[in-house]
């Protein structure tokens, strides 16, 4: 079991973020007898997944939708699958864009290096 501070430190997020996720019903931690938030290993794994979705540009509304569907139970599996497939498609488009941009940058960098090398060779000969 983990406290909110421990989870924040383990995941590299603020306690404010964890409270926000709770307010938005993305995560529902347990409470101890004093009312303090207590996170289990499964909570930690769930948060890691949610944070990955966020890192890959899934809108918070979609993360909330996924969390809601998950808590509703197994009968929402088709909807959850569709949501994740749509996000996977979005990531694949991002990857394609990144690869194209990477190639363009490589070309530009090579061009600049060649230009600078030729300029420096001309200065050395003079």
TrEMBL record:
<protein>
    <submittedName>
        <fullName>MerR family transcriptional regulator</fullName>
    </submittedName>
</protein>
<dbReference type="GO" id="GO:0003677">
    <property type="term" value="F:DNA binding"/>
</dbReference>
<keyword id="KW-0175">Coiled coil</keyword>
<dbReference type="InterPro" id="IPR009061">
    <property type="entry name" value="DNA-bd_dom_put_sf"/>
</dbReference>
<feature type="domain" description="HTH merR-type">
    <location>
        <begin position="1"/>
        <end position="69"/>
    </location>
</feature>
<keyword id="KW-0238">DNA-binding</keyword>
<dbReference type="GO" id="GO:0003700">
    <property type="term" value="F:DNA-binding transcription factor activity"/>
</dbReference>
<dbReference type="InterPro" id="IPR000551">
    <property type="entry name" value="MerR-type_HTH_dom"/>
</dbReference>
<feature type="coiled-coil region">
    <location>
        <begin position="81"/>
        <end position="115"/>
    </location>
</feature>
<dbReference type="Pfam" id="PF13411">
    <property type="entry name" value="MerR_1"/>
</dbReference>
<dbReference type="InterPro" id="IPR047057">
    <property type="entry name" value="MerR_fam"/>
</dbReference>
């Amino acid at each position: 079991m983990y406290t909110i501070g421990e989870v924040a430190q383990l995941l590299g997020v603020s306690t404010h973020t964890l409270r926000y996720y709770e307010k938005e019903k993305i995560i529902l931690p347990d409470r101890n007898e004093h009312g303090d938030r207590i996170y289990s290993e499964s909570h930690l794994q769930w948060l890691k997944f949610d944070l990955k979705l966020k890192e890959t540009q899934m809108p918070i509304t979609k993360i909330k939708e996924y969390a809601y569907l998950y808590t509703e139970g197994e009968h929402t599996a088709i909807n959850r699958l569709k949501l994740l497939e749509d996000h996977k498609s979005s990531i694949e488009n991002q990857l394609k864009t990144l690869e194209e941009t990477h190639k363009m940058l490589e070309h530009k960098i090579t061009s600049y290096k060649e230009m600078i090398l030729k300029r420096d060779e001309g200065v050395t000969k003079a």
